[in-house]
Amino acid sequence: MIVNGETFNLKDSITLKDFLTLQGYDITKVAVEKNGDIVPKATFSEVFLYDEDTIEVVRFVGGG
Question: CA 30 → CA 11, 12, 18, distances in Å?
Fold first, then answer.
C-alpha cells in the first residue's frame, strides 16, 4: 500500500481507522483519499485497506 508516497506492506487488511490510529494520526483532524476517492470520516471504521491501495492523508493544522 502507498500512503502519501511511502510504501507500507500490509500482511492483512485493516480498517482505515485502525491504520490511522496505529500511525499516530488524530482521526478528528485528517482528511483521507483512498484510490482517488475522498473517504467520509463517518466511514473510517468501515473502510478496509488492502496492499494494492493508494492512500493520501492530509492533516489539518491551525495557525495564524
Answer: 24, 23, 14
User: What cell does 52 get?
Assistant: 494494492
Over the stretch 21-41, which tens digit does the pLDDT of each residue have? 999 999 999 999 999 999 999
Selection from 14, 5, 1, 30 nearest residue 38 by Cα: 30
pTM: 0.90
Q: Which residue has the cell 485528517?
A: 30
For 47, residues 6+ apart whose C-beta sits below 8 A from its C-beta are 15, 16, 17, 34, 39
Tally helices (H) and strands (E) across the chain.
Answer: 1, 7
H or E segment at 17?
helix 16-22
Partners of 38 in the beta sheet? Answer: 33
